[in-house]
Amino acid sequence: MPLRRGGTDPAFRITPDGAVWRASRTPAGPATLRITGSPAALEGHAWGPGADWLLDAMPGMLGAHDDPSAFAPRHRVVHASHRRNPGLRLTRTGLVLEALIPAVLEQKVTTIEAYRAWKLLLFQHGEPAPGPAPADRMRVMPDARGWARVPSWDWHCAGVDNKRASTVMRAVRLGARIDALAALEPAEASRRLQSVPGIGPWTAAETVQRSHGAADEVTVGDLHLPHHIGFALTGERRSDDETMLALLEPYAGQRHRAARLIVLGAPSPPRRGPRLAPNPPSWRS
């Protein structure tokens, strides 16, 4: 679930009845979306000032605007994963800042640390999700002004170093100009995002994959992805970005989709060392 930032994401819930709840900051204001039904017949209900906007965006979020017809598996492992995941669609939220901020929080830290930071910051500085959100525990992320008012101590307590916090501050100062990138082609949106200091190819790719449903934006600079793809396609345990991009070249135009299918369907290389341990919370240091 690329839109879920961990099992305790305050902006995303799956309730026991199978309903999917998502709280978003839309251009029209905060909103909560509830999706029910089966893959063949989904139904959405929304609350809040941005309810209509979120309902209009729901088909794109569910992959209705994604066109996988141009994709042709060229490796056995990709073909097998494609066959096992026939319903895979790339999400397109149209919300660039919403995808960008958690991507910045994930820069060069463990996933556990990034998810913890997102959770703490939303509970401290977000607002309650509109409507009958489950257990009153869902939060909408702050608007640009809200992010700008987060004090340095709260970034510190959430385990976010000054470099990442400063990158978020630079992004939110651009405010609506960032979300306006949703109207551009993914490659151009990525290029403009990278003009903001602190946003590199990794962060830009992770953002436009979600905001634009970008089928060809590959996450370069990742610690694990090159090894996973290299091992799946060549059997070699070690790989790098250059090798990964060369291996994905037969999927030009669909490289992100191919990478997603490999991650979904192929085992990662065996680990030869301990996992990277997350840093302790800043208030304990």
TrEMBL record:
Name listed for the protein in its UniProt record: DNA-3-methyladenine glycosylase 2 family protein
Region described as Disordered: 265-285
Lineage, uppermost ranks: Bacteria, Bacillati, Actinomycetota, Actinomycetes, Kitasatosporales
Keyword match Ion transport: no
Keywords: DNA damage, DNA repair
InterPro entries found in the cross-reference section: Alkylbase_DNA_Glycosylase/TA, DNA_glycosylase
Biased composition annotated in UniProt, kind: Pro residues: 267-285
